[in-house]
Write a structure and sequence with these properties.
four-stranded antiparallel beta sheet, 388 residues, globular, 15 helices, alpha/beta
């Protein structure tokens, strides 16, 4: 139950505070990125009804246990990634759980080599170990993906090398194309299979300078998400060889992921492939402009220390670090949005760096294309003026 403030009014519950912040950020006239959480239920449903016919026949009956629109999304995703088969999962956590336990059975090894900042290590409550008996090892703890030398020289055997592309918690960082090819070859030399945690793989083509099919083709299996980059409602796809995907479907059922109907998520995913995927290289290019201008803005404002990472960004997302309390920065961001400019959103304390630092993630998509470098520098100057 909520308490009371000194003036006797009821304190906000966490959910009320969250809804209030969403309303403020949504109302800002200028923003660098549109996010799916900025829309009401009515708006999302209306958009699916208005636009869904672009990607699927809305006069067909709804899907049942994975046919219809869901099967079409699987087909389209397999085609985009260049794999013979794909299976839709309600979450990426479940998709990767199925993939990694299937590979463990094939390789005879329950050991998965991955980065300590990878999503399963940080955000999934030890699901690999608790549900599938898998064990993870870390070829490197540097804030980047392991390189070929580290994989070849790692002292412990492993059956699967899992690479998160990009590595989000390290700053959406990617290796170079040659480094990626080399680390995959190193895993092969160790008789390991390679799985890509490609939740945001869609946005890597500009950095690598290669088409999506060529990037995905380096791996034995790939997971992709539909809501993180493509603006979908939810859901993920696991793509790979037909035999692997057939077994993964069985595990999907066992894990409770064989849902009765999923057509809203499937339609939103198909629309993301049609509308958003072709625009991502443009977003990545403009993110470089925005990141550079943010750094110039902080320097011009006399901020004694800041970090834009990586610079230039590897994707259309990057980190900004400042030596302030996260709550102070969050309040400044909220006040600026109330005045019509949404430059930054949520700040958090540094999870691994020195005390007194806070970090935020910046995304640039369609609305951000309207921002010039001068616009960004002016917004940064205004933001700094709101700090104590």
């Amino acid at each position: 139950m909520a308490g009371q403030t000194p003036d006797g009014t009821a304190e906000e519950t966490p959910d009320q505070a969250h809804q209030r912040r969403l309303a403020v950020f949504r109302s800002a006239g200028r923003t660098l990125a549109e996010q799916s959480v900025d829309h009401t239920l009515a708006e999302r449903l209306a958009a699916l009804l208005a636009d869904g016919a672009e990607v699927y026949d809305l006069d067909e009956f709804t899907d049942l246990y994975g046919n219809g629109a869901v099967a079409e999304l699987e087909r389209r995703t397999a085609q985009e990634l260049g794999f013979p088969a794909a299976a839709f999962f309600p979450t990426g956590t479940m998709a990767q759980q199925a993939a990694l336990r299937c590979w463990a059975a094939r390789t005879g090894s329950p050991v998965v080599a991955l980065h300590p900042l990878a999503h399963p290590e940080v955000h999934e409550r030890q699901a690999f170990a608790r549900l599938s008996g898998l064990r993870t090892v870390h070829p490197t703890d540097e804030p980047r993906l392991p390189n070929a030398e580290e994989v070849l020289g790692f002292e412990e055997p492993f059956g699967t090398l899992m690479l998160e592309l990009p590595l989000r918690d390290a700053g959406y960082v990617l290796p170079t194309w040659d480094e990626l090819v080399a680390v995959v070859e190193a895993a092969r030399e160790r008789d390991a299979v390679v799985h890509f945690d490609g939740a945001r793989l869609w946005e890597t083509t500009a950095h690598f300078g290669r088409p999506l099919r060529e990037i995905a083709g380096l791996a034995d299996s790939v997971y992709v998400s539909f809501y993180k980059t493509l603006g979908g409602l939810s859901g993920a796809v696991l793509a790979g060889p037909e035999s692997l995907i057939a077994e993964a479907r069985a595990w999907r059922h066992r894990y409770g992921g064989q849902l009765f109907q999923q057509f809203p998520a499937a339609l939103a995913g198909l629309l993301g492939l049609r509308r958003v995927l072709p625009e991502l290289p443009t977003y990545v290019a403009h993110a470089e402009v925005v990141a550079r201008a943010i750094g110039e803005g902080f320097a011009a404002a006399g901020v004694p220390w800041f970090r834009v990472h990586p610079e230039p960004p590897h994707t259309h997302q990057f980190q900004v670090w400042l030596p302030y309390d996260a709550e102070v920065l969050g309040e400044a961001s909220l006040r600026q949005a109330e005045d019509g400019v949404c430059l930054f959103r949520r700040w958090s304390a540094s999870p691994s760096g020195p005390a007194g630092l806070a970090v935020t993630e910046v995304t640039v998509n369609a609305p951000g294309l309207a921002w010039s470098a001068d616009d960004v520098r002016a917004a940064v100057a205004d933001f700094v003026r709101r700090l104590p």
